[in-house]
Amino acid sequence: MKVVSSEFLASYPSFDKCPEPKLPEYAFVGRSNVGKSSLINMLLDKKQLAKTSQTPGKTQLINHFLINGKWYLVDLPGYGYAKIAKTKRKDFQRLIKDYIEFRLNLVCLFVLVDSRHKPQNNDLLFMQWLGEKQVPFSIVFTKTDKLPKMKLAENIELYKTTMLDKWESLPEIFTTSSETKLGQEEILNYIEKLNRSVDF
Question: What is the assigned CATH class of domain 22-197?
């Protein structure tokens, strides 16, 4: 898929305030500071479309982008660590969970995981919850340019082994780098393939 147009629509405080669910939607989520905004900008070939920050927890609303006039890319708040009050963190968790559970046109959720780290408990628990709710999702390993290829392969294999302790099969997995654009074509082609399989 080639991205010929991408525009920021608006930010929404809850799933029921989002645009009418008339187009297929693909959401990106992950722990704070996983590189989500950088990945979105890389996918869309726009440097500052999604706002990046050195401060975790910058995204605090549901951000919608219209792509090629045909589908929505959604930037969700990060879960896990962020320098915000506990009550606000709970609000984020509820915002994310409500969106994922009740957004009718969500086709696939892309769960971003920092490839530099061993499997994190909050990532594993989050994906387990997605499985229980039967939410279609893919795993996107980010920042793969930040470590040697051998270490990257080791980390990803450890992730797969850990997940297969509880999962019968693994979801689609992508390796990405916002610096080198690794994974851009694969993710966009996957979205295009899914778009052809849904009826909106």
Answer: alpha beta
